[in-house]
What does this fold into?
Amino acid sequence: MTQDKALRNHLVTLLKGEGAHVPVETALADLAPELRGRRPKGADHSPWELLEHMRIALWDILEFMRNPEHVSPEFPSGYWPAHAAPAEAAAWEASVQELHQILAELRKLAGDESKDLHARIPHGEGQTMLRELLVAADHTAYHTGQLVLTRKLLGAWE
It folds into this structure.
């Protein structure tokens, strides 16, 4: 296996949340609707806020890599939902599904051997695809950990 292929495999693994991490799918699974918008004592965010923040940030990273016309949300307010709870159960489900789709697209980019991981993104400021994929994996792992802790504080994690 070439070094490039090995690197791509590692990136895909990171973006799946495998290895030393809890996959984000596991952290989001089976959370009771009444807990999705609750901020437990000791936590800064509700599960909904963490889910939406991950979705928005990963969408921004993905769009930045593939769309030279993309405009990022205002930082930091544009990366967080306006409310602690989803407006309805369907909003939670839609956000979870979109997060999974974005992660699948990021994994697809990581595995695409026609993409140069080390080349600068032409419309960026020195960023490379490798850097953006690592940021996406790191950001997801960090907030997935927060989500697990929040669920523990809510009594919804075994």
Summary: The two ends are 39 Å apart (CA to CA). The chain has one domain: 3-153. The chain has a mean pLDDT of 95. The CA atoms of residues 40 and 153 lie 6 Å apart.
